[in-house]
Amino acid sequence: MNQTDDPHRIQTLEQLLALFDTPGEASLRKQIDWLHPLYQQLIAASSFVALATSNGAELDVSPRGDPAGFVQVLDERTLLLPERRGNNRLDTLRNLIADPRCALLFLIPGLGETLRVNGRAEISVAPELLERCAMQGKLPKCVLRIHVENVYFQCARAIARSQLWQPASLPAGLPSAGQILAAMGEGSFDGEAYDRALPARQKATLY
């Protein structure tokens, strides 16, 4: 059956809105276009943020993490996010060259609420900004100066449903990084050697 003939497929805004209740006052009140001091407290306490970008054709969501406060508030409408060592694919940065729009989701371990920030980012290698983001004596490759357009907190339902912060043992049988790479390489990649070397390599190249 053609997707356009599927009677259960939602295809219009009117159909979508009919599924849900009207947003409550609190859901609308929490969104503002600047970094309220209380929102700044959440950012300062966050040690992990997911960063979403697009180049118009492709999408990317990348994790960013450091000790709490690694995303700095420059002023009420500007954030500073360091670009640390990574895999050099540069998916996020390539996207921002084409389209500066970005979205950030801040998580704080143990807290149910998350913080969502949308804005536009520029890539900078200004020495004073790099110095502000130094970690263990090493400068980031570059920094993202993010101009905030809207910001609001997300209620705790998703974290509660996922039990994200609840103590749990790691599920058995999950593939390692080496096993995944070996499978992608169809036998031409030594996954076991990769896994053996990975902990030391990650420790040596963290910053």
Automatic annotation (TrEMBL):
Gene3D superfamilies: Electron Transport, Fmn-binding Protein, Chain A. SUPFAM superfamilies: FMN-binding split barrel. InterPro entries: Pyridox_Oxase_FMN-dep, Pyridox_Oxase_N, Split_barrel_FMN-bd. Residues 37-155 form the Pyridoxamine 5'-phosphate oxidase N-terminal domain. This is Pyridoxamine 5'-phosphate oxidase family protein. It comes from Viridibacterium curvum.
